Amino acid sequence: MNDMNPSWLTDEMRQAADSARRQGLQTDLRTLAARIRTDAESRYAHEGVGWQSGVEWALLYIENMAGGLTEGRS
Hints:
By secondary structure, this protein is mainly alpha-helical.
């Protein structure tokens, strides 16, 4: 018996665990993006133009990763 894949776990249980992990990671990524936005807006607001495009790109990248975690899954 493999300790990492116990035989008593059903496919449904494995899928539910995988789904919960993905949803948790998705939530964490979106929380991270919100914190980055808040921090950047308060820290660099006086810096002028330029920093915003880099921050927006990073936030879009994080959101795309978060969305991809559950895309095409039920």
